[in-house]
Design goal:
Distance between the termini: 30 Å
Order of helices and strands: EEEEE
Radius of gyration: 13 Å
Helix content: under 10%
Shape: elongated
Structural class: mainly beta
Length: about 70
């Protein structure tokens, strides 16, 4: 499966673009998690959770922030 470039909306990574894998239907995977950046190098960083939302008018897939997990 090809990789797909997606835009993140909401949360700490708002506006960033990342590359995700496609599922068997050719759409981006439904959910991704990214490691948050923390100022304290000894802290355990949370995982930022984004879920596939929709395709915008330009054809770019968007993922919406749904929360964080530790």
């Amino acid at each position: 499966m090809p990789d797909i470039r997606v835009r993140l909306r909401g949360g700490p990574q708002d506006g960033h673009e990342v590359t995700v894998s496609a599922d068997s239907s050719g759409k981006p995977v439904p959910r991704i998690s990214l490691t948050a950046r923390v100022p304290n190098p000894e802290a355990v960083p949370p995982q930022l959770i984004y879920e596939r939302a929709s395709r915008n008018r330009e054809g770019t897939w968007e993922f919406r922030y749904v929360g964080a997990e530790t």
